[in-house]
Amino acid sequence: TGLTTLDYGFVNTAATKSAITYIDGDAGILRYRGYAIEDVAANSTYLETAWLLIYGSLPTPTELAGFENRVRRHTLLHEDLRRFFDALPHTAHPMSVLSSAVSALSTYYEDSLSIHDPEQVELSTIRLLAKLPVIAAYAHKKSLGQAFLYPDNSLSFVDNFLKLNFGTKAEPYEVNPVVSKALERLLILHEDHEQNASTSTVRLVGSTQANIFASISAGINALYGPAHGGANEAVLTMLQQIKDSGESVEKFVERVKNKEDGVRLMGFGHRVYKNFDPRAKLVKESADEVLAALGVQDDLLDIAKELEAVALADDYFIQRKLYPNVDFYTGVIYKAMGFPPRMFTVLFAIGRLPGWIAHWREMNQDPATKIGRPQQLYIGEPERAWPSA
Ligand code: CMC
């Protein structure tokens, strides 16, 4: 129609109103429900932030304790779902495993189809928060050929997750508090980012009245791509390639600027942040702290810092307002913690889960919600006659 405007990548089109997260990309501001990301990261926990995003205000201590207990009670996977992993190859990318298993959750919990029943939505919320980390850890264990552990509900959310990933049946596992604290902080930094590609996917699928597991499984698949969450894995691959090839950082940056084979500086650039990404600043602090505390020396961190310095001094990046984003330094930290690169985007997914849930619920409660159905501008053939025989 004459009213249709073309907007590739939805650069100018708001698809919804939302009260969850505020971003000012020019000023480098990010707020969850009005609270500055710096304050949330310094003072909160993953589950407290999840409550904040989902319910809109900070929980009382009693509310938080109740919430943590409910999540704890739902960590076990159905035994049949535990065996679901047996059918997948050990070479499977953990992101594919994650989205498949989350999709499979709706086969175990058909009550999740009652998307307008608040009690069922609440139960699905708790199930997702409790089970996604377990599914993620099993995807990791599967890739290593190691036995799965059962959750240990005496531990905190993050410590339980670390034990499921790094504990074995042969020895007791002791959580390193430095790792635990840093991981909690990183998860918080990823919890929401308004209408990014995966959250928009969750909303689009949810707008068809699909259940929350189906919607979030779709969001996980959207996050997988290297232009989105997959960037954290791609950054590490890039740093490793620079190291292995012996190519200088300056030479690599030249190739990026010349757009040689479409090579990009992964972990740089953002659709909304045209100043700096406030999360990247906090992540960079964590990188130095964690590596120092763990006594890890990693050449890849040095290469990353050199890359950042070279890029930030270069006209190409200055003119295009390209700054390091949240994914630039996270991989180096996850690596120091012992996670393989293929798990990095899975960690992003666990982080983003509360945001996806909050958006799905907000969308479902908004009477203005309509099925998502973009327009197109047709550029194909006009009507033509079918060739006669
Ligand atoms: N390296 C080199 N050049 C870049 C980069 C980069 N990382 N990002 C953008 N550009 C250039 C791009 O070539 C274009 O230049 P020109 O005008 O000469 O054609 C200009 O900057 C604008 O780029 P765009 O692709 O139109 O920007 P966008 O808003 O559509 O893309 C982005 C945003 C994040 C997809 C992109 O910056 C990118 O591909 N970055 C690398 C991948 C990455 O780190 N993604 C993580 C994003 S943050 C967390 C998350 O969402 O998961």
TrEMBL record:
It holds the Pfam family Citrate_synt. One of its GO terms (cellular component) is cytoplasm. The keyword Zinc-finger does not apply. GO terms for molecular function: citrate synthase activity. The keyword Kinase does not apply. InterPro entries: Citrate_synth-like_lrg_a-sub, Citrate_synth-like_sm_a-sub, Citrate_synthase, Citrate_synthase_AS, Citrate_synthase_bac-typ, Citrate_synthase_sf, Citrate_synthase_typ-I. It catalyses: oxaloacetate + acetyl-CoA + H2O = citrate + CoA + H(+). CDD domains: EcCS_like. PROSITE patterns: CITRATE_SYNTHASE (PS00480). Pathway: Carbohydrate metabolism; tricarboxylic acid cycle; isocitrate from oxaloacetate: step 1/2. The active site is at H270, D327. One of its GO terms (biological process) is tricarboxylic acid cycle. Keywords: Acyltransferase, Transferase, Tricarboxylic acid cycle. Belongs to the citrate synthase family. PANTHER family: CITRATE SYNTHASE. This is Citrate synthase.
